[in-house]
Amino acid sequence: MFSRDNWKEIFETIQKNKLRTFLSGFTVALGILIFVVLFGFGNGLINTFDEFFGDDATNVFYVFPGRTSMPYKGYKSNRQIEFDNDDLAEINKNFAPFLEYSTPRIFRSGLVKYKEESNNYSTRGVGPAHQYAEKTIMMKGRYLNKEDIKNKTKYAVIGRLVEKDLFGAHKSIGEYIDISGSAFKVIGVFQDDGGDNEERNIYIPYTTRQLIEKNTDKIDQIVLAFKPELGYAGAMAFETSLNKFLREKKYINPKDRNGLFIRNVADQLKQNQQFARVLQLIVAFVAFGTIIAGIIGISNIMVFVVKERTKELGIRKALGATPKSVIGTILLESIFITTISGFIGMMIGIGILSSLGEKLKDFFITNPNINLGTAIFATVILIIFGALAGYIPARRAARIKPIVALRDE
Amino acid sequence: MIEIKDLHKSYKMGSNSLHVLKGINFTAESGELVAIMGSSGSGKSTLLNILGMLDEADSGDYTLDGVPIKNLNETKAAKYRNKFLGFIFQSFNLINYKSAMENVALPLYYQKIPRKERQERAMKYLEQVGLKEWAHHLPSELSGGQKQRVAIARAMAAEPKVLLADEPTGALDSTTSYEVMDLIQKINDEGNTILVVTHEDDIAHMCKRIIHLKDGVIEKDEKVTQVRASQYV
Predict the structure, then answer these.
(1) How many Å apart are CA B33 and CA B49, to the nearest integer?
(2) How far apart are CA A12 and CA A312, in angstroms?
(3) Do A358 and A297 lie in a common domain?
(4) B196: which DSSP letter?
(5) Nearest to A320 among B78, B114, B115 (CB)
(6) Are A276 and A402 part of one and the same domain?
(7) ipTM of the predicted structure?
(8) B88-99 per-position pLDDT tens digit
(9) What is the extent of the structural domain holding A180?
(10) Is B97 at the interface with chain A, CB within 8 A?
(11) CATH number at residue B18
């Protein structure tokens, strides 16, 4: 059944029936193409989500104060809560077994100058651990360290784009920049996967910031990282007890929703990932529908092909073709066409996906791609069903009496 | 070569059945050229189809070259057709996307003869029917007479025991008809057994024996003096 001669016969038939070949090939190629592209878009959506939420460490809580909306223990409502160094120290003391690291954050924004260049950037007064919380990647020099905090050094770590704006091609490390009137020495340049805005930040020691601001001890935000081995449930329990502790310390009504906020990255990430998975499921469902449509398409064409060839098959039978060889001719032809065109469609689809890359980022699709295994699996499924769909009419054609087939005009 | 005893065949047409062949008996020896004549509906094509194993009889015996043809499954029938029989149809029945040579070579493909030998043999038979120069033309590029000659070459290619021709001249004008009959006579001269179904008197008289069918029975079975077609060509 698979001799060279049979293949030659099939090739000739394919070559000489171009429209038929084109129709069935096109259906299959299109089906696979759409499947691959849709599935790739689904993965692209997930990539976007991962990128949005994946640039920061996931075992991090951001704790920030608000304005109370309820009176509590003699304090009136509408009171602005403020954190200070003491709060952070107490958290570190009381929750030591849970904590991996912690850092305060103080946000300021102001004019930054270097020689003739100047621009507005936001400055973050932070501790050394902030590097891990933001997953800051050092390109040149170093990050802030404990000594900088202790000595309240006037050192600054600037983002890649800050360096580009202010220094251009010049060397930046060791140079002094003017941040809102104070001179800071640049000790490092960083990049961040979080995007351009992240790379327009400047990090300075939080103690230096406090010193500049009349030696205050206030801090804007507390960033806490719990130990990853706590797991999701442990992290949730930690969040609850931390919440309780801070509310007691700062006299905030336990039911007050506005006095204190804890943003849990892990929890958010989980929700967003679930959302992305649901989206992918929907896309996969649509893609699966495309495959079904492809199967129906190829089935229709096979029925048509057999119908069109009824007379030819009758002639072949009169000349001595056995039912087996009739079925074989039709099936091998169909499998051959679906295989070739299926893989062509697959390759085009993969080509489209890889050429897109970042171009659809505005539509929340980043680096759309498809696992090669999935693509091949879908193609093989289509080939198998194409063959099955061809087998039924082929078997019927093989059974038709040659005399009936010959009469067919 | 061919032996038929008490052959019956009826077709179901809705609720009533149409009795087409009502007990046919005849024998054809090797090398005979037999015309089967009869008006439309007399059962001549049905008889030929049964002889060609394209259709099956309801009852009766059919022996072809000493082999009883009975209860054949499709595969076996296909093999017998390929080995024993060559067909010539009124409407030629060439495969339209294959060249003349490929059409002739097709029965040999089903005999599993290697490609090269197939093509050589196909060319040999095309030469015999005088169409060597047309070997690579498609049927659509050939005239009716040429198509029928390709079909005859195809029927001959498998070197069958019996050639069955169903109205071989039915779609041709008289000059071309005589050319085709001339070819059939020449093939018969070489000792091939040929059965020709026709309703044309002059064609029938170019055979050596005429069987007249009427209403499903043999009305008359006569030997005739053969009129050579070559005199008209």
Answers:
(1) 17
(2) 14
(3) yes
(4) E
(5) B78
(6) yes
(7) 0.89
(8) 988 889 998 899
(9) 100-225
(10) yes
(11) 3.40.50.300
